[in-house]
Amino acid sequence: MKLFIFAWHPTPRMQGNTSAVKADNQKNNTMNYPYGKAAFFILLMALVTGTAHFAVSFRRQVEKPDLVMAIFAPNHEEAYRAVLGEFEEQHGVKVQLQLVSQRALQSRLQSALLTGADVPDLVELLEGTIGFFARGPLEDVGFVDLTDRLHAEGIYDRMVPSRFSLWSSRGRIFALPNDVHPVTLAYRRDLIEELGIDVDQIETWDDFVAMGRSVVQDLTGDGNFDRYALDTPLGGIAVIRILLLQRGGQLFDEQGGVAFDTELTADTIAWYVRQTTGPDRIGYDAGWGQSLAKAMNDGLVLFYFCPDWRTKQFEMDVPNLKGKLGLMPLPAWEPGGRRTSTWGGTGLAITKASERQELAWELAKFLYLNEEELSARFRATNIISPLKDSWSAPVLDEERAFYGGQAIGRLLADLAPQTPPTYISPYSNLAQNKLAEVYLGAVAYYNRHGEAGLKEHIRKELTAQADYVRRVIDRNVFLQTDEGGAQ
After folding, report:
1. Are 323 and 194 in contact (CB under 8 A)?
2. Is this model's pTM higher than 0.85 or not?
3. Which of 149, 92, 113, 106 has its CA nearest to residue 354?
4. Most exposed of 15, 211, 262, 381 (fewest Cβ within 10 Å)?
């Protein structure tokens, strides 16, 4: 900051006539600033604001935060800022939140961890990214291994055990899970009731398909269907994974071995192909954003795959459907089977580079295990915590007007223990891409040949793509050595 000093000298007239000086001063009611009153006040404001800016900047430099936490979700930032003051007061520390893009968290953070550059103390990660950071030996993973802490403090047993699979590599846990994300079906309650359909009678996917074929209709008589039963994205991979997980299938096994070239996977893909193409299809790709909102408003599609986080998204995107939507468990694949799956996830990791790992661990527990704050967070986001103790909170029994007075929190909490594990590998993205190729190839085959030979075609392609992923994994010498050649 620059300081300007102005020297003021009395004029000869003033030196010779003191009374005149006093008269002039009284007349002007201020000192005679050489450049005028306006310039004087501008200078005064500049000095005040400049000094304040310097003081604030200096204070920020002096008050270096004790912990830095990087997150990628704006709604998480809002929730955490509301409670961080309590943690800071309890521990006499300062916590800084940094909202950054998910891409930066994955690519730039890994580079910073490898080069020894400054990194946050805590980082919230998106589902699948732990595999990206665990491509080499376990000792080279840049996050603190939380496995022993979780068991020693009894936290592991207090949470849904399947959720730790998202944040594990070769049996070691590197992040604390934030959510469960049980999947339901959201449906147009008003239209379903008009059609005389009782969703409580839909217990299996066979029941659902039979119902679906009865509601797919050409309502205008123009030869095109105007109503479909199920939202089925043509890319396929997101829903195929949901269905495969529900059935107990996986892309990889718990040790990281390729596991998607199975009869179960082939049968799941064949089922999805039949629902998305051909004369007996019940599904339609409603898309995302505005196209999805229009499809919902128009009643083009009646049922939608809906994890807990999407229930809040629907509230924001289609507010005019208030009271017209409902939630139901996923149909099971066999009577008495699992009625849910899972879609997505977030976890909190502590970097090895942090100089205050114990304080970071206390913050992680404060944000993820505080039952009172978890209740407030559920009311704001509809996201179910993996902490089982939090499921007895009254907020979960609140009736939601948007969903026709349904207590969706209780439904989601009841489904949460059934959510399947999701095993992650550094090659999860590659495997998903290959699975999508198999599905798209199966759609093309079905359009040309129909049902004849469909399953055999899918099995052959699954074997070829799985073998390709295995060959890519075999090139990772570090991963092979770390796993003792298990893959």
Report:
1. no
2. no
3. 113
4. 15
